[in-house]
Amino acid sequence: MRGLALYPKRMKWVEIFLMGSDLNRVVDHLHESRLFQIVDMESQREISPDSELLDMKNRIDKVIELLSPLEDGKKGLISAFLEERVEGMVIPQHDLRTHAWSWLKDAEREVTPLKNDLGGLDEDINYLRDIKERLVQLTGLDIDLDTISSFKIVRSRIGTTRRFAELKEALKHTGADLDGSLLDKKEGLHSVRILFSSSNSKEVENVLRGRLFTEVNLDIPRLRAFLVRTTGKGSDLGLPIISLIRRMEDIQDELEGRRDRVLEKGAELAPRLLPSTRSWKEAVEIEIEKNRARGTFKRTRYTSSISGWVEKDRLGEMRDLLSHQTQGRYHLGSRDPTPEEVEENMVPTKLRNGRFASLFEPLTLTFSVPKYNEIDPSLWISVPFVLFFGLMLGDAGYGLLILLPSLYIYIKGKRSQTLRSIGALGVLMGLATTISGIWMGAFFGDLIPRLIYNTPGEPLYELTLLGYAMPYDTLKDPMVLFQISLWLGLAQLDLGILLLGYDRLKKKNIWGFFKGSVSWILIEIGAVIFIGALLVGWWELDTPLLIIGTSTLVSGTLLMAFEGGLMFLFDIEGLLGDWISYTRILALGLSTFGLAMAFNIVGEMLVDITPYLIPVVFILLFVLHIFNLLLQTLGAAVHSIRLQFVEFFGRFYEGGGELFDPFGREREFTRYSGESGSGGAVR
């Protein structure tokens, strides 16, 4: 593998000069090719947005907002992704605005009646719900709204109070008539009606302005008009409150039935209009992007210039594009990034991993984007992440529950590359978990030996492979997995140290290589010599070993002191802490099997009570094992990621870069016709 493959793609800074008459064609094809990140725009220039295109986009958004909820609601998120991709619609580029307006007016002509009907019905239904909530507060009163609204001389107020006795006392000297009914005995809530003459209204209003009374405002004239409009008569206001509420419920049921019928018509309209609506939305958004770019390039009267970054291995592709679209009327200058641009993190990062390592790019990017001149760790966390996850979960039954659905998603997920990648990652994690579970003899814990074979404590199977007795019992001999965890941790930490050393050598930082990498290697050699002799008993500490061990420890420590100064002891302590952290692999592995076994023991106890509980035990164990699967999968994923982010990345990786963001976008609903039109004229 070439050293460069460890790093993101190499970039070139380019400056393009072309005739103003060629600008539209070049912009169109640069947008489709997505090979160029434009960064040198005239940022100080005020660019007014294209109001016509923005208005068009807003109106298209409203059509989508109306029709999207009316699509087939039976499709799930995954099933929608698993559908075959529909070939995108070809949008005419020539005179795009005229075509878009023509289509939009036809679409709005069809959806406007639907919008108006739904809007009116929703408003009426919401109004009814609000009125019912208000009327419920008056259910204890022997009144009707028609009578109350007919009062001329006598005034009335209706509402609620939680301090009925105080309100009654306060109104005693005002001449008002108070009638009340208890609604909620616990809270002391009463519905009340207050009648009083105009002559003493001022005194009554003063009392009611306090906290003793909450008025229920019904706006009876509006309610009467609503009833006349929806039922053809307003006489229902003469009904008692309870009867009026029931009448309101009948009207609401009728309106909701009408709304359902309108929605059925909309559901027929949605599949016919939405595909083209989304296509036109995408086309207009693309035109807005192009128009914004055109308006910000450097310009003279006859020429335009564009500057930015392009991938080094696609520079020839850019030359071909410019040559074809301008008939050779262009100038393209290019250069490598300057040391200052690299140092100041001005060069964008374009990852270049293969199919396998790209599955783990989201993990790397979750932590931070690699800098342009920094090693991309995506490949180096791939195997450790999957391996650690499998050992932590370590159950063949749980592994199959991850593997099989993931395999189905991977095979069927043709529409979404993201979903397909998730499926592939799930296959790897499920496979690692299944293999680990077979090695540990775990299939939903000890479900088969305990509940099917009725031999609790016995292994799932017995096999000797290359002299090694399988399965390995984590509960009886946890030290094996403990040692494996430490060896795996040491291997990954050393990999990080080697990557740091390689990076420094590549950047010709020889002294940094010795301080940052050789120092650790020397210390590890000395530590292994002394620990192997004094603690483990692997060998005798004779004079040659004593000299080698002492010299490597001393020289490594001195080199580290140059790297970290007086804090080098904390660096050593930090490495030991990172190493011990890998024992979480054992902890989570024991947790998964132990909890699964506890669930199986509960099931065994219930079956021992009576065989009739077997169906109940089956359902119970199904629920409990699914719970354990979700809980332990989350734990294994989080802790495996943590080992990469904290322990491994801490050896060599910093991040902080900016992803390469090429001008353009991936089309989802449209296809480029290859022509350039006037739809994107700069305004």
Describe this structure in words.
With 683 residues, the chain is an alpha+beta fold. The protein folds into three domains: 3-86 and 273-343, no CATH class; 126-257, no CATH class; 357-652, no CATH class. 60% of the residues lie in helices and 10% in strands. Strand 8 and strand 9 (303-311) form a beta hairpin. Helix 17 packs antiparallel against helix 18 and helix 18 (510-536) crosses helix 19. The chain is extended.
What are the salient characteristics of this protein?
four-stranded antiparallel β-sheet, five-stranded antiparallel β-sheet, extended, alpha+beta, 3 domains, 22 helices, 683 residues
What average pLDDT do the residues reach?
Answer: 89
Could you list the spans in which at least 5 consecutive residues all have pLDDT below 50?
678-683
Distance between the termini: 51 Å
How many structural domains are formed by the residues?
3
Question: In total, how many beta strands?
Answer: 13
Integer-rounded radius of gyration: 37 Å
As a percent range, the share of strand residues is: 5-15%
Q: Main beta sheet: strand number and arrangement?
A: 5 strands, antiparallel
Number of helices: 22
Q: What would the principal axes of the Cα set say about the shape?
A: extended
Query: What structural class do helix, strand and pairing data support?
Result: alpha+beta
Instruction: Please estimate the helix content.
Output: 55-70%
